[in-house]
Amino acid sequence: MMHYVMTLLLFILVFGVVVISHEFGHFLIARMNGIHVVEFMIGMGPKIISWGKKDTIYSIRLLPIGGACMFEGEDGLNEREGDAKDSPSAFPNANVWARIATVIAGPFFNFILALLVAVIMVPMIQVHDTMVRQVMEGSAAEEAGLQAGDKILKLNGERIYLFSELQIFKQMNKGNSVTVTYERDGKRYDTVMTPKYNEQAGSYEYGIVNTNILIGEVDAGSAASQAGLQAGDVITKANGQRIYSFEELFQTANVSQDGEVTVTYERDGKEYETVVKTTINEETGKRYFGLKSGITFLRVKGLQCVQYGWYEVRAGVRNTYKSLLMLVRGKLGRKDVAGPVGMAHMVGEIYEETKEDWLDVFVNMMNLTMLISVSLGIMNILPFPALDGGRLVFLIVEVFRGKPVPPEKEGMVHFVGLVFFMILMVVVLFNDISNIIHN
Q1: Pairwise CA distance, residues 391 & 314, whole Å
Q2: What are phi and psi of 161, to 5 degrees?
Q3: Of all helices (H) and strands (E), which one includes residue 377?
Q4: What count of other Cβ atoms lies within 10 Å of the Cβ of residue 80?
Q5: Domain of 226?
Q6: Is residue 301 part of a domain?
């Protein structure tokens, strides 16, 4: 029961912050341009609570799936006495550039929110740059000539700054070859890399590892200490097999009958070998080395927070519009699409995985807020009827015509768009439920 309560609360909080920022953008710019805001509402459906201030009604509605900023004279709406056609504060009577600014402000504020959240978030997460720290043997990266120490700069000519961008590019690009621009010893090179299908993982892989098995600390008197391992050593093999993570090292010890592991490691550019006689941890029942991982990620602070916050938002924007293009081209299926119910389910899964540490919950919710805010900003700026982008198209036409499109014609177009999106919401709702049941 607690799981569902927390899921609902976190979803309302995340989605509410995103919607409020969007509608506040419309509200603020409208007020600055003298446009009367009739109602500022969060949520859809019946009102739960409302209050009025300075001729504006503020309301919270039952369904936490959207919101609206209603302007006087918009689509025939008029809450003031008299005719909105003669009111200087009515939306249609405002300067066309004031109306354009008001419409654009919603999506723009979504991007501002995303950047603010990212700037706050990046000092609290492990930020991984595009440095190649390990290349898997026999992998696509090895065949392409990439080496540990190379820094990846571009994929198919597109600049990347985060390792997560490479991972998402791999997922979207599937088995297609990619031109990689990388830096080695201060010089730039290009190579073509063709991913290989990994049957165990069920995906195409490049074989690039962004971390290495760097020892950060060795417990005094532990098996690792007795074997001579030191902080700063980099482990490369276990029992003669190339490994790429601490998890593989620990797994090798756990499947060993006597717990002995022959470890190959690098120190000061030279390779050494030692035998680690692990002991069993009574609390976990697993083999104990006495090792702690070293730092193989960036510690972002100061002005770097703005820089890497921007990189996170930039990656989110790029991934969103690429996903939309793939959806239009039929490269994504219904399982890849999620509506409010799907997002709520996602919130619940994230909470369940991170609930042992509230800082993890907080950071993951911030990341989700950033991604949803970016997605909402992009979706609303698309030139579809009933969306901000659709209204923007009519305003741009007005700029070139020198006069507005007749309200009844514009209203009909937006009405058709609204009906379409209502039907789409029902389809997405059933799709969300179907995906949840099948998963």
Answers
A1: 25
A2: -125, -20
A3: helix 358-381
A4: 14
A5: 213-291
A6: no
CA 324 to chain centre: 15
Contact assessment for residue 107 and residue 381, using Cβ atoms and an 8 Å cutoff: yes
Name the one residue in this structure whose structure tokens are 């998963």: 439
Structure token pair of residue 48: 């739960």
CA distances from 145 to 149, 166, 190, 253 (A): 12, 17, 10, 32
Residues 112, 22: one domain? yes
Amino acid occupying residue 2: M
Amino acid 175 reads G
CB 383 within 8 A of CB 392: yes
| Tally of structural domains, the chain | 2
Reported as a single tens digit per residue, the pLDDT across 31-62 is 999 999 989 999 888 888 988 866 888 999 98
CATH number at residue 231: 2.30.42.10
Burial level of 4, CB count in 10 A (0-12/13-18/19+)? exposed
- Whole-angstrom Cα distance, residue 3 to residue 7? 6
Q: Residue 191 burial by CB count (10 A; 0-12/13-18/19+): exposed, middle or buried?
A: middle
Residue with tokens 């000539």: 145
> Over the stretch 135-173, which tens digit does the pLDDT of each residue have?
998 999 999 999 989 999 999 999 999 999 999 999 888
